[in-house]
């Protein structure tokens, strides 16, 4: 029987650092999780794979996701063992995820995940031979999501009243713009930032700035004409969140200027 993998993936796929594969859930539970990982925001991730179309992939994944939330100490020990104590201490248990990968899904699968109060991604694959595999998001459901255009909860700064009215309005306008990029856009709040993602983070908004809104985008700074005071290459600079391009917003005009970069990310 295959033993759990003891290596961490050095090149994350789907924004997930893989911790183990074929992970045994013990003799009582009697199962093996295809892959266990942690995403770029610290959320625990269960990944289930099926060849072809298999309606059971979702229910099986939910079974393992329930096991995961009941075995937090075991998962954090695994994170500590693979990634160190700092990563183990930053696991985000408010947003565990399930990613189901199959050749295709039915409209009933898509409807089902949207009815379930869990964070679930359905991803289809196409195999082209010669080692080429294409992954395409099919549907996303996020636990506790409100209607489109409304936020799950205030950002860290807004909830504590740290930001001035102008900055709060700018953050709200940014939130509306980003969520308008697609029905599958969701957000996750960490202490330091709010991450907007599809399968992976594409924009992270810092909570630390009061006089401006600072966003990092998953865009190569080499593809942008950098403007001092507005855009900056932070690929070699320590910062919170995902992305190598920093954008500083002070006015609605800055937000309009940033919109093409947000779409590119």
Question: Could you characterize what this model shows?
Answer:
By secondary structure, the chain is of the alpha+beta class. The chain has helices at 26-29, 56-70, 72-83, 85-88, 107-115, 156-160, 165-179, 252-264; strands spanning 16-24, 32-39, 44-49, 97-102, 119-129, 132-141, 186-189, 193-197, 201-206, 213-217, 231-233, 245-249. The strands form two sheets. Strands 1-2-3-4-5-6 form a six-stranded mixed beta sheet. A hairpin with a 3-residue loop joins strand 7 (186-189) and strand 8. Helix 7 packs parallel to helix 8 (252-264). The N and C termini lie far apart (42 Å).
Summarize the structure in short.
With 265 residues, the chain is an alpha+beta fold. It has helices at 26-29, 56-70, 72-83, 85-88, 107-115, 156-160, 165-179, 252-264; strands at residues 16-24, 32-39, 44-49, 97-102, 119-129, 132-141, 186-189, 193-197, 201-206, 213-217, 231-233, 245-249. It has a six-stranded mixed beta sheet with strand order 1-2-3-4-5-6. It has a six-stranded antiparallel beta sheet with strand order 7-8-9-10-12-11, with helices on one face.
Key phrases:
disordered N terminus, 12 strands, 265 residues, globular, single chain, six-stranded antiparallel β-sheet, alpha+beta
